[in-house]
Structure formats: structure tokens, C-alpha cells
Amino acid sequence: MELYIDRDDLSRGLARIQGIIERRSTQPIFAHVLLHARDGLLRLTATDSEVAYIGDLSANVQNPGDIAVEAAQLFQVVRSLPDSTVHFKLDENRRLVVRSGRANFKLLGVAAEEYPALPAFEVTGTARFTERDLRRLVEQVAFSVASEDVRWGLNGAHMERVDIDGELRVRMVATDGHRLALAEAPCEGEFQFPARQLVPRKALSVLKKLLGTGSESVVLEFGDRALQLRRDGEVFWFRLLDGEFPDYKAVIPKEKNHTARIKRSDLASTLKRVGILVHDRARAVRFAFTDDELEVQVHNVDRGEVNETVPLDLVGTEITVGFNPRYLQDILGVVGGDDVVLELAHPLAPCMVRDPESDTARFVVMPMRLD
Amino acid sequence: MELYIDRDDLSRGLARIQGIIERRSTQPIFAHVLLHARDGLLRLTATDSEVAYIGDLSANVQNPGDIAVEAAQLFQVVRSLPDSTVHFKLDENRRLVVRSGRANFKLLGVAAEEYPALPAFEVTGTARFTERDLRRLVEQVAFSVASEDVRWGLNGAHMERVDIDGELRVRMVATDGHRLALAEAPCEGEFQFPARQLVPRKALSVLKKLLGTGSESVVLEFGDRALQLRRDGEVFWFRLLDGEFPDYKAVIPKEKNHTARIKRSDLASTLKRVGILVHDRARAVRFAFTDDELEVQVHNVDRGEVNETVPLDLVGTEITVGFNPRYLQDILGVVGGDDVVLELAHPLAPCMVRDPESDTARFVVMPMRLD
Predict the structure, then answer these.
(1) pLDDT tens column, B70-98
(2) CA 20 to 30 Å from A60, out of A108, A360, A363, B368?
(3) In a 3-state reduction of DSSP, which class is residue B113?
(4) Chain B residues lying within 8 Å of A103, measured CB to CB
(5) How many angstroms separate the CA of residue B182 from the nearest CA in chain A?
(6) CA distance B298 to chain A (A)
(7) What is the ipTM of this complex?
(8) Distance (Å, whole) CA A32 – CA A45
(9) What is the Cα–Cα distance from B218 to B221, expressed in whole angstroms?
(10) Which CATH fold would you assign to the domain A252-365?
């Protein structure tokens, strides 16, 4: 193997795989990136057996070949190189010689045959999105996925296909039992989601990093217990989680007796201040919705009190509810729009939160009993 | 106590004391800031008994008074306030009521009488510096101070007065036994340093944060086993450490048989790359100084090799030495100047590092035996 490649292209390619490689795995090979040089391309492959990334970079390949090297170290080396061109050459002792300007590294390699093979993937359907829509979909639900919950089905995001007035959408839903997030993105294609299959946390977090905010097309490919995100020169494969997702529709409130419309930035800044005095997540904060304002109140015996009012438009009668303010803050961070609407049926019923101008996302927060 | 104050002024004042307060002290009072309102000023006082900071801020004081409140929390609260004016008022339950726009906090207070009194300070001498000179002095030596060394005298920076050709300077010296840093700054004044007294690490780190890079005057005041930095509206007091500093002059090499002059940025980028393969601080890196280049070489059996050459001007014969590259990197970060000079007597003698264009700082690194 011998090739010349642009340092900054290579550095960006190696940056993308840092979220995939597992530095502390019991199998050191998962800390490696496989380099595969052929026909004007250097292919980077990284996997932890649950997710895999393949990225092709333009390169001036003198001799094709393969080698796996420690990925975090290669990234550090490449970023530090003095010249904009990098020369890779495999020596007779299976070491990758990296040259650039005055710099001259020899990095230990592992034979490509020892690199784990990626599972075969047979495409059974595809869905095409704009990059920004798919990114929004992931961002709007990822924060609600449970973390290592014993209820296995909460540890991933459920996906399904919905057809709304002839418009095809992918819906994603996540819940940790305390709050729920549901988001939809329009798409084109032919596909069916398998039942009982969830997108795990790590795949969601890699997707968030890979996806940009542009209007380019990206494709989700459907396979057997796995999905693939395909974009020009890149494939991100991830295994789905086999878990029973709860009947989320039962959690989404149908009834509303009190609807409060509030300026999102007002509520967000109030929640930020109120949070300073909340150190115990299990303690509910008092939210009193009156005809013309929302009053938020925290009394912490060890720290002090905070008391703030936010202007609102209320439809329905006054109501007082307890919330974990952190859950509302998470929602305000992803909901979009100038205003936000909170819909309540009664003080202990789930509260719906949404952007009044958009139907592509809905959020539910379970209230807490006030002392 | 009641006053109005500018939020951003107050926020900057509270930011300055965050490095002084001790959040995890066994005495919770050290996590507090004392607020003292009088005659158009709000005075902030913070201390951990080894260092203390007093800062005066302009305020519209309606009623004078004092209260101590938890400093990190007050800083968080003030930064989050919506309006540019902040209203402080002490209520009958010794709580500090903080109002700004819609926000309304009541923070628990501790009576000013419970706040530790600062020791009396009698000024026995003063030295006046430009702010940037004093900052450089501290920066150039602080990284060489030992950390909790059993040799007590290494845990602080030694200071002394030097008179060079009629110019008065303060010299600071620090060493951890592996490397030594010596820096000097010109000053004006009348003072004597007590023997056996050292500036501790925490005081150095606070000084670095307090001092800017401008040409304004700052004054060091000398007292009994303590110093004070005095600047417009601010006093930073710190206790000196009673410890025997080693005879540092014996460590500074007098002899040199090999003098290498190297472009500082070249050597710095080489050391950065070489460091990627050095994970064991106890392992020496090979530096071979030849007539026209410095060759730096690392061979790490677990990771690979790196080999780099840097152009140099050498006076004297060729020589090969082992160094911990991290120690050289630390020096290159503070030495200043386009070029750097390394002076060696023989492979196991201390190596002097300095800016050839300046006599205000000198650094010594102990070489290591090559395997």
C-alpha cells in the first residue's frame, strides 16, 4: 500500500470515526480503523460490531493495499502533521509509514484479515430524506431515550411509518417513563419497519454527529435487523435493538382542559434560573398557570427560594402542577418555534408540549405530586 | 443592606473570586463571599485562610450592610439574570433578595460576623511593576513548582531581589527537581524579601488569572510572612510558605561545550508530534544534535516510531542527549522569542534553555540516561 492524500480531508474522515471506535473494549481491534486503498480512494472502516462506518476519501493511490491501525492515535498524528499532503506507505514489517514535511512516523499495524468483517446487508427498502429533516428527527427524540433501563424496550427509539393525508413520514418515538418525545419527518421511498426493533442510543448519537443541517438528500436503507444511512461516499450501518417498545399512544393525552401558550425564550430563561436552586431531581417545582401569567416557584431549605412569573395566554381555568424543570428544559431545547403550548387535563395527567405552528413533533411530560 | 448594581460588573467581580473560594472545604464558610455595602461601593471578600481577595465595585447603595452568601451559587444566579440592573436587599430572615427583571431569588445568608476576619497586614515595603511584567514573571515559573512534594521547599516559588547594573528586579525561581525556571521582572520600590519564604501554587495560579497583559501599574506590598497585590479597587493577599528552597544557583550550569540555536516554532511542533508516541514519562527521548540538524527519535514497542529532524545552528561538537520532551514543551510555551538556545556541557549535565535575545528568563532541564 502506498498513497498520497490531503491532510485536512483525512483529518475530517478520521474525526468522523472517533465516535464509533471503542477505546476501552476488551477487544483491542475495535480501537482500530481499517485503511483500504484502491483506485483513487482510501476507504476508512470503523466498527464496534453494533455500529459501523465506511467513508471513502479521494487519494492518489500508488499501490493498493490494506492495514488496520489504532484510530485515535492515527487521528492525533494526522492532525499534528506539518504539510498539507500526507504520504502513507506500508513497510515490510506491517508498519504504516506516515510522512509529511519533516515528520516521519512508523505506526504499528494489524493485518486487514484480523479486522472484523461487516455483516452482509441486503437492502429490502429505502427512505429518502433531506439531511436536515432526518437530523431534526433524531435530535427531537434522542434525549428521551432511557439509559440502561431494565425495561429493555426503553433503551432505544422506536420507528414507524405513517401516512398522513397522502404524505409519507417516518415517525420516531422515545420515552424513559417520565417523558416522551415523538417526531416525524417527511420522506420518499418504499419500505416497511420491522416490528419490535429499536434504534439504540449509540446509533442515535452517531447519527446526530454525522448529519448536517443542509438540504442534501440522505437515504436510509432497510435490512435484516439493521439500517444503513447512505450519503455520498459514506455508509453508516447500525444494528437494531430487539425490544418491546411500550404502547406509546396510550400515553399521549387526548383530553385538554387548560391550554397555555408562552413565549419559548421567556420560559427557557425562567427554567434556567429556577434550575439553579433545584439540586434534587425527585423534587417537583410548582407551576401555577393563572389567567395572565405562569408563576414558577422553588423553595429549597438549604439554598433559598426563587419565584418568577412568565406572561402567558391561557384557555381554560387556572391550574397548579408539579414538574421536574429539567424535563421541560430538554424539550424547549429541541421544540423550535417562537411560542410553545402546554396542554393539561388535570394536575396529575400527562402534559403535552408542542410548537403551535408545527405538527411534526409532540412531547409529553409526566407531572409530579407537589408536597 | 439595599443596593442597585450593574449585572455585568457584578458578574465580572464574582468571576474573579471563583478561583479563591473552596467549594469542598470542611468549613462551609470558605465557600461564601462576604458582601459589604457602604458609600457607593459593594465590597466582595473571599478567602480560604491562605489567600484572600477584596474587590470594590461601584454600586448605588440605599442602605449599608453586610451578608455572606454561597459564592458559586450567587455567581450562577447573577449570570442568569435577565436585566442589566440587579437589586440586592437583605430581608428580616437574613436572606439576600436578588431582583432583576422578572427574576426574584431569596438566597440564604450567613451573618458577616461569622465570616473569617482577614489577618492584619502591615506594609513593610513595596515594589511597583507593569501588570504584564509581573504576569510574565509568574507564568514563566509557575509550571515548574512541585506538587505536594515531600521536599516542602519545592512546593512554592522562591522570590528574591536582584540589582543588575543599577536596575532593580524581582527574581522568581521554581523547581521540581527535574527542571528549573528562573525569571526576572524590573520594578521600582523599597523592599526586602524575607529568607525561607515561598509563594505557594494556589497564589501563583490566582495571580496568573488576576493579572492582565496591559502596561498599567500594579504594586506588590510586603508584610509579615505575606504579600499583597494591590491594583485599582482590588487587593489580593497571600500567605507565604515557610520552606527551605534549594541552592538553585548550584543547578544553573556555568559550563557549555555545545550551543544549539533552533527556531522555536519548529522545535515546538516536533515535540508535539513526538509526544504522541510517548506515554511513559520515565522514558527518555533521544535528541541528537549534529552540525546542521537536531534529530529527535522515539521508539515505542507498543505503538511505533517517530523520527524527525529540525534545522539548527550548532556551536561546538555533536552531542546526543536524552530528555523528557514534555519538560522542553513546557519551556517553549513560556520562553518567548523566535529562536531558542539550548546549552549543554555533556550528555548527563543539566541543559540550559533560553531566549537568545533576552536575559529575563532562564530554564534548566535535567537530561535522562538513554537506554
Answers:
(1) 999 999 999 999 999 999 999 999 999 99
(2) A108
(3) helix
(4) 270, 273, 306, 308
(5) 30
(6) 9
(7) 0.89
(8) 9
(9) 10
(10) DNA Polymerase III; Chain A, domain 2 (3.10.150)
